[in-house]
Structure formats: structure tokens, C-alpha cells
Amino acid sequence: MTTDLTDYVRSYLTPAAGYTPGASRLTDRPVIRLDWNESPWPLSPTAEEVLMNFRRGNRYPDYSQAPLRKALGEYVGFDPSRIVAGAGLDDVFMTLAMLLIEPGDEVVIAEPTFGIYRSLFTLHGAVIRNVPLGPAPEFALDVNGMLDAVSDKTKLVILCNPNNPTGHLFPREAIEQIVDGVSCPVAIDEAYAEFSGIDHLDLAESRNNVIVLRTLSKFAGLAGFRVGYGIFPEVLVPYLQRVTPAFANITTLSAEIAIASLHDLDYLKANRDRIVTERMRVIVALDALPDIQPFPSATNFVLFRLPVADSTSVLDALARHDIFIRRYGTPGWRLEDCLRVSIGTTAENDAFLAALSAVLQEQSALEEVTT
Ligand SMILES: Cc1ncc(COP(=O)(O)O)c(C=O)c1O
Description:
Blueprint: E1 32-33, H1 45-53, H2 66-76, E2 83-86, H3 89-100, E3 106-109, H4 116-123, E4 127-130, H5 143-149, E5 154-160, H6 172-181, E6 186-189, H7 201-206, E7 210-215, E8 228-231, H8 237-243, H9 252-263, H10 265-288, E9 293-294, E10 301-305, H11 312-320, E11 323-324, E12 338-342, H12 346-370
Parallel strand pairs: 1-11, 3-4, 3-5, 5-6, 6-7
Antiparallel strand pairs: 2-8, 7-8, 9-10, 10-12
Bound molecules: pyridoxal-5'-phosphate.
């Protein structure tokens, strides 16, 4: 008997790949990888020591990741009981979806923003209500539009602050207006907060509907170890204990590396400062290139506009120089003429800037020949 196995798949699941990741892959061939918003810096000394001496892979991790949650709680100044960890922030979003979403529930977001929100919450049957950001360079949050989009079906509003891929911060008043104007949970994704010098941790204390989400992938340089976390309202804690996966999906090694890295906070902060300094340098250098418009950034990446309708040819030409950055062709996002570059080491940033300048010159010379 032949059956169509796809009939057994959850009815609201679509086969399309929901999220398009960066193009570069880790291979033996060294390339300049500025398309994943990673940190270019190695582990801190204490974390490196943990890695070299790790021997306990035969034992399960702490069941509730208590030591890790304690270290994260100390870092952000919250009781560990309010901290939920996961294998990266993506995994904490999965826990959030398990906690809140039933098919048909609505999630309000403001695109262009982090692509995982749409792909992950629709995976749980949520309907996405998108309230687009205004045009560049402000990318303004439509506060009234967001408030209007919230209905009795809304289970969650997500604000990415600073926002990926635009790199900008929303004004605090706009965030407060949304938080105070709705009764549903509002998740503030602060994956890049450490690069901005601004956070909204106090709202997780003063408002009962705020969830602040963080990751060690960016400023702490632990993308490969996969450690993210959220600070949740106290009343949700017993339900979170029900939906958080066993061991929070975090390996013993990753938890120990995370704790050791937080021990070396001065090292992490010095790396963060180097990235912020380089970010300013890259923005100035981009601005000096003819007709390139870099947008302000409070993150470890910069979005910039090019003097072309479609930035694909520049992206592809950079890839031929083994330099990988990111393009967003998503319909409605109006970023077809933009590219996003992560901030790397000084040498990587220099290589990117030199290659971009060469590619733009080649392309304008070509244009002159063909016109
Ligand atoms: C805004 C935002 N949130 C969350 C994440 C996911 O981070 P993690 O590596 O912790 O899963 C990213 C990663 O790029 C991001 O840009």
C-alpha cells in the first residue's frame, strides 16, 4: 500500500525552509566570515582551561542547569529562579513557543527583523502579524500600529532591540508605550545589548509582562557552544519548568564554558570594546566610499546601502574574494540594495573594506563600458 507520509505532518507546517542562514560554511579553507554576527575572539583564559581539562562527558549535566542559571542570574542581577537557559537563544524561543502558542494564536513582530521569529512561531501554528518598520535610515517602530495589531488572539509581542538586521535601537519611550499598552507578554530580544550600552532589564523588574532575552553567542563569543537565556516573569516559572527541555538542552561542557567565561567578564568587556571601536571605524570607512550609506549601529554588525538597485552582484563579487557578508532579499523588507557586514578583527575589516572598494570600482568601470 502506498501512503503519502506528508499527510501525517502537522497540518499547519509548510515545507519551505523558513529561515535563510548566512552563506558561509566552516571549512578547512580560510575565508573571511562576516555573515553570522559572531565574535572574532577566542575563549577567555579560564574558559580555555575548562575546555582543555574537560573530562566529564560520561555524566549528565545538572538537570535544571542550576550552576549556569546562578552565574547568568549574577551577571544580569536577577534571581536564578527567573532565568531559563537554552541551547542558544533560538532554543529559548522554542521554549517560549511551547509555553504560549496554540495553532491560530497571533504573534506581533516588526520586520525587517530577526528571521527566526517568523519561522519558529509559525512552526507552532502561530499567525504572524507584522507591523513593518518605517523606511531607512530611521526604521521607526510604528507604536500605534503595533498596539492596533494586538488582539485577544495575541499571545506575544516581540521587539528586537537593538534590531537585527538594521542594527538600530528603538527609543525607550516606544518600548515602554508598547509594554504598557498591552496586557500580553512582550519579549525584548537583547541579543546585542552589550554592544549598545543600553538594556531594558529594569522593565523585567518593574513590569509584569516583560521577558528579556539574551545570548552568550555574541559579546561572549560562545556561538558554537550554544548558550542563551531569558529572564521571565515569576508567575510563569512553574509553567516554564514544565516546558523547558531536560538539561535545558545544554551540554555539561557548554555550561561550564559559559560559567568560566562569565568569570572573565573583564576579558569579554575588552573584546566588546574592541568591536565597538572597530564598528565606528568601519562606519566611517564605509561612509567615505562613494555613494555608500552606512546606517547607525548599536550592535556588532553594520547595515549599509549601495548605489545599486540589487546588491546581489556585490555580494557575489565579495564571495569570489572569499569575503562573506549578508544580503536580505525578503519581499517587503526594502533592503534589496543593502548588505550587512559583521564586525571582525581589524585585519578582517580591512580586507572587507579593500575588497568592497575594489568591487565597486570594477562594477562602475563595467557600467561605463556598457553604457
Ligand atoms: C536578534 C537575535 N536573536 C537571537 C539570535 C540567536 O542567538 P543564539 O546564537 O543564542 O541562538 C540571534 C542570532 O543571530 C539574533 O540576531
